[in-house]
Amino acid sequence: MNKGYHGMDLGIAELEELSSKCRLSIVKMVHKAGAGHPGGSLSAIDLIVGLYGTRLRFDPTDPDWNDRDRFIMSKGHASPAVYSILHEVGYLDYEDLMGFRTLGSVCQGHVDMRWTDGVDFSAGSLGMGLSFGLGCALAARMDDSQREIWVMLGDGETQEGQVWEAAMAAYFHSASNLKVIVDRNGIQNDDFLRVQMEIGDIAAKFSSFGWSVKEIDGHSMPEIVGALEWAAGITDGPCAIIAHTVKGKGVSFMEGNPSFHGKAPNDDELRIALGELS
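Above: the chain sequence. Below: its structure as tokens.
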């Protein structure tokens, strides 16, 4: 890959095809493991594919390339989405995906930069990724590097106060190389956000902290690509894309179903899912 080049230069149809491949990998690896988080992986994958396919600078042959862009998956339980794209772009083998959540596998349950090439953040408790991303953004500035820092947050995750401390600090430091994508699927671990603790208008909240904000349909690839281009053009401070998505997108019995936040499909459900996704 040309290291001065942004993304893989894929067109809309190619991006949509890549998303379909990743969805198949997500349900297969979670089923094989008998555990994992398919719902939030399926809601996020179109956004991640759009980012890797058009904007993010990376090099699978040189995972430690210092000037690569960073993708920080703050909602790290959605690791199947990350592993599926890392497989498609050359960081992981298919056998790695099928070892998901097994002892010693490079595909652990939560993304971990110590285990997996192409992962730039070790996740655990929610709410930490934006702070980490801000640190990466400020480090890039100190290094006089053009690298961009992209952070994906879950909407339930924005209930964490640390997210808003980081948002305040990012605006104060004019971190224009810091870009956030919020996967606004309306469901968290135990139930719908409206039941657990509704967070309201996330776009307005980021805007009130001084951020530039754009809302999109997180499953419309043309809107995703346009929003990524918009975000890359923001140079006067941090920006956020609020992507309205469907938990479990693409699998009928998972869509909008809180039960599949953290549950693997059984054998019969896998057959249905593969039929719908193929």
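The two ends are 30 Å apart (CA to CA).
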